[in-house]
Amino acid sequence: MKKTINCLSFCLVLLLFACQSAPSEPVATASLQRTAVPKKDSLQTNESFVSASGRFSINFPGTPQLHQHKTEIEIGTIQLYQYIYSEDNLRAWLVSYSDYPSKMIEVGSTKQLLKGIKHRFMKGLKASPSTESTFRYEDKYPGYSFVGHSKSNQLDVVYRTFLVENRVFQISMYSSVGPISSADSTAFVGSFELFNAKDSL
Fold first, then answer.
1. What is the residue range of 106's domain?
2. Are 56 and 192 in contact (CB under 8 A)?
3. Residue 54 confidence (pLDDT)
4. What radius of gyration do the chain's Cα atoms show?
5. Which own/partner pairs from 14-22 qualify as long-range (CB within 8 Å, at least 24 positions apart)?
6. How far apart (Å, rounded) are the C-alpha atoms in residues 122 and 114?
7. How many helices and strands (H and E) does the chain possess?
8. Is residue 199 one of the residues assigned to a domain?
């Protein structure tokens, strides 16, 4: 578990230093070990986790660990908050958010920003999408999502990112023991709720 968390944190931080000219969001990857594991009836323990500072709630399978990273860019400071829960170095669940300086959002294209985030994530993970789509969280906030597989990392992944004002959220799941079921994806990704979504963050 510790190896997984360290790897996720390290890769997320690395991409923060790449956002000098245009907004980009950290890539999350994991070096999970592909081994046989007994099947469980369900991973959906529905333990509601609330982040007061992030102003969201989501159902993790267990208690996540908080990791924080900060980096200076040309027009401000970006603080990354990431909540990670991993299971026996076989699976991992992650939610991260970071606030970009408003000027970075104002001068850029939201569509290009989110497309760039998704592209960097896929490139960093070396993942090929089986499905991908655009969506609007709360029918208002634009985002991208995909389900894919990284052959080189032997990982299956479910990923979603969206922008709320100047805050970028990323929600992702990883498995080294086979594809992630739609039921487990819905139980985690689908449980995300943003507090005061209509208010500026």
1. 2-194
2. yes
3. 92
4. 16
5. 15/120, 15/124, 16/69, 16/71, 16/78, 16/80, 16/98, 17/71, 18/120, 19/73, 19/78, 20/73, 20/74, 21/74, 22/104, 22/108, 22/112, 22/113, 22/116
6. 12
7. 4, 10
8. no
78: in domain: yes
Q: Do 66 and 83 form a contact (C-beta atoms < 8 A)?
A: yes
Number of domains in the chain: 1
Regions in the chain scoring below 50 on pLDDT: 1-45, 197-201
CATH classification at residue 129: 3.40.1000.10
Distance between the two ends of the chain, CA-based, in angstroms?
Answer: 32
* Burial of residue 137 (number of CB atoms within 10 Å: 0-12, 13-18, 19+): middle
DSSP-assigned letter for residue 64: P
